[in-house]
Amino acid sequence: GCIGCHLAPDREEKADDYGRLPLRDVSAKYRPDALVAFLRQPDAHYAWVRMPNFLLTAPEASHLAAYLQSVK
After folding, report:
1. Which of 20, 25, 30, 62 is in Cβ range 3.0-4.6 Å of 35 for a Cys bridge?
2. For 25, phi and psi rounded to 5 degrees?
3. pLDDT digits (tens, 9 = 90+) for 31-43
4. Rounded to two decimals, what is the model's pTM?
5. Cα separation of 72 and 52, whole Å?
6. Element holding 61 (H helix, E strand)
7. Which residues of 6-42 are buried (b: 16+ CB within 10 A; e: fewer)?
8. CA-CA distance, 43 to 28, in Å (whole number)?
9. What is the CA radius of gyration of the chain?
10. Could you tell me the CA-to-CA distances from 58 to 1, 4, 29, 35, 62 in Å, in that order?
11. How far apart, in whole angstroms, are the C-alpha atoms of residue 15 and residue 13?
12. Strand pairing partners for 6?
């Protein structure tokens, strides 16, 4: 469901015609453990966040975080 609001992390655009935000700078914004925690429960960290809680398991969040932080 990420593609609905985000551009893939390997894309260079700052945004697109749909207003989707790039994921390429995620590794600069989050430490790995903090990203996993955010992905598991986004609204626990920022009450105003628009990202839905996808109810990711710990392994799912860890794998997604590893992918997002591996793409440069």
Report:
1. 30
2. -105, 15
3. 989 999 999 999 8
4. 0.82
5. 25
6. helix 58-70
7. bbebeeeeeeeeeebebbbebbeebeeeebbbbbbeb
8. 20
9. 12
10. 18, 22, 20, 11, 6
11. 5
12. 21
Bridge partners for 47 per DSSP: none
- Separation CA 34–CA 44 (nearest Å): 12
User: Which residue has 């799912």 as its token pair?
Assistant: 60
What's the confidence (pLDDT) of residue 59? 97
User: What is the distance between the alpha carbons of residues 64 and 29, in angstroms, rounded to a whole number?
Assistant: 15
Tokens of 18: 């749909």
Q: How many residues make up the chain in this entry?
A: 72
φ/ψ region of 11 (left if φ > 0, alpha if ψ in -120 to 50, else beta) reads: beta
